[in-house]
Amino acid sequence: MVGRMATVSGWVETVRAHKNVAFVMLRDGTGVVQAVVGRKDVSAETWERAATLAQEACVLLAGTIRADPRSPGGFEMGVSGIDVAGASDDYPLQPKEHGVEFLLDHRHLWLRSSRQRAGLRVRAEVEQAIHDFLYENEFVRVDTPILTGAIGESAGALFETDYFGQRAFLAQTGQLYVECACPAFRKVYCFGPTFRAEKSKTRRHLTEFWMVEPEVAFADSDENMDLQEAFVSYVVRRALERCEKELATLERDTTALEAVVPPFPRISYSEAVERLVAEGHPFDWGADLGAPEERRVSSWFGKPVFVHDYPKSAKAFYMKENPADPRTVLCNDLLAPEGYGEIVGGSQREDDHGRLLARIREGDLPEEAYGWYLDLRKFGTFPHSGFGLGLERTVGWITGRPHIRELVPFPRTINRLAP
RNA sequence: UCCCGCGUAGCUCAGCUGGUAGAGCAGACGGCUGUUAACCGUCGGGUCGCAGGUUCGAGUCCUGCCGCGGGAGCCA
C-alpha cells in the first residue's frame, strides 16, 4: 500500500490551507484520511482547487500513499490530482457545538458527523448481533404486519389510519402475531418498527422505534429471564468486541459494560417495594414502578436487574396469573444500569382460554378484535413466554448517549416528522 | 394533559438594578515554516420569537400567544 499510486473518493471534512501546503481531511465512508497537497507538487489549477475546497464537497483524489508520523493515523496521501465531483457551497453544519433543534432539522446532513456515524454503526452491529444470536439459537424470524386491525396492548396509544374505509392501526407490538407462529416453529421472533402515539417528551421515548420480540413455546417465566440475560449479554459483548473504535469516539466508559454477563440479579416487585419503603421511599404496593423508583432499584446493582411479578392491575391483559400469588402476574422488566431504565418487558402468557377472555372483558377491550388470538387457546394451547427489547434504548445505553433519538437514523418524536 | 426552563447575526452564545446591539465560529478577501476543529488581519451580516402593556425610553419589566428543550404520567 505504501508507495503505491491510488485514488480515494469521498467527502471533505475540513481543509487547512497554507501558503504552500494544504491539508484535506477526507472521509470515504470507512474512515478519514489526511491528504496533503504541496503547491510545488501540483499544477496551479489543482492547487487552486485544493485551496478552495468546501466542507462536504465530494472529491476524487489521486496520489501516493506514504507513512508520515505527523499525520493522524501515521499515513497520508500525497495528492497529485483533484477532481471535484460534487460542490458543497454553504454547508450548514460546522465542526462545533450546535443546538438540538438545528441538528435535528439537518438530520440528513448530521448523519455524516463522527459521533453520529459511531452511534449508528453500533446500532447496526447490535441489530446484526440480535439476528445472529437468535439464528444461532434456532429461532425462526417471522415478520409481523405493521398495518393491523387488531389492537395491541391498550387502545390509547395507537396511530389510527384509514384502510379502504376500515379503521386500521400502526402496530405497537408484533407479539400477538408472533405467538401465533409459536406452534409452527416453537422458537420465533419478530424485529421491526413499532408505533406508539404517546405524547411522551423524554430522552427515552420515540413515537416510532424498533423492537425485537422473541417468543418461546414451553418456556416459563424463569426460562424467559434466562434467555433475556443471555441475549442482552451477547449483544453487549458483540458491541464491545466489534465497535471498540466507535465506543472510543463516543467516549463511552466500557468498564460498566464489561460487567454485563449472566446471571443478572432478580428481585420481585414485592421485594423491591419492601426495600424502597425500608429506605424511606414511600410507595404503595399495587402501583406500577415509576421512573424515579426504577432508577432507585437499578442503583442497587452494578448490572442490569430483573424486576419480576408485578401486580396484575399494573400490567397487560395477556400476562399469566402467578399461581404463588394471584395478585401478581408472571412477568418481568429488565432495567439497564446507569440510569438508562427499562429496556425489556417480558412475561409468560396466559394460556387458559377462559382466563384470557375474562381479562379481555375486565379490561373493556374489543373482544371481537381478539378472536384469532383467543383461537390459540382453543386449538392446542401451550405454555409460552416472550419479551420485547427496545433497540434504541439498548443502543442508547451501550453507547452511553443521553438521548435515544441519536441512535436511530431519522427519529420520529412527538414534534418531528421531518426529515 | 401537567410542571420547569429557554427563544438575541447563518451557527453557539454574552448583553448587570431599563439608556438605543456585541464576541467566537461560519462566509468573502488578504497573510502565513507540516497543519491536527490550524493561526493572524480586514470586511459584510440583526424586525432581539409574535402581539399587547408599563415607561421620556424596553433585548432587559408585566400579560397573553407561538415554538423548542427537559421532566411527570404511559411505556420499550
Computed CA radius of gyration, to the nearest angstrom: 26 Å
Shape: elongated
Overall residue-averaged pLDDT value? 92
Question: Which structural class do you get from the secondary structure elements?
Answer: alpha+beta
The topology string of helices and strands comes to: EEEHEEHHHEEEEHEEHHHEHHEEEHHEH
CATH class of the largest domain: Alpha Beta
Q: Quickly count the domains.
A: 2
Helix content: 25-40%
Task: Report the sheet-strand fraction.
Answer: 25-35%
Number of helices: 13
SSE diagram, text form:
Layout: E1 5-17, E2 21-27, E3 32-38, H1 44-51, E4 58-67, E5 75-86, H2 100-105, H3 107-110, H4 114-136, E6 140-141, E7 147-148, E8 160-163, E9 166-170, H5 175-185, E10 187-195, E11 208-217, H6 221-242, H7 244-249, H8 255-258, E12 266-268, H9 269-278, H10 291-299, E13 305-308, E14 331-336, E15 341-348, H11 353-362, H12 371-375, E16 384-390, H13 391-399
The structure holds one RNA strand of 76 nucleotides.
Structure summarized in a few sentences:
It contains 13 helices and 16 strands. Helix 4 packs across helix 13.
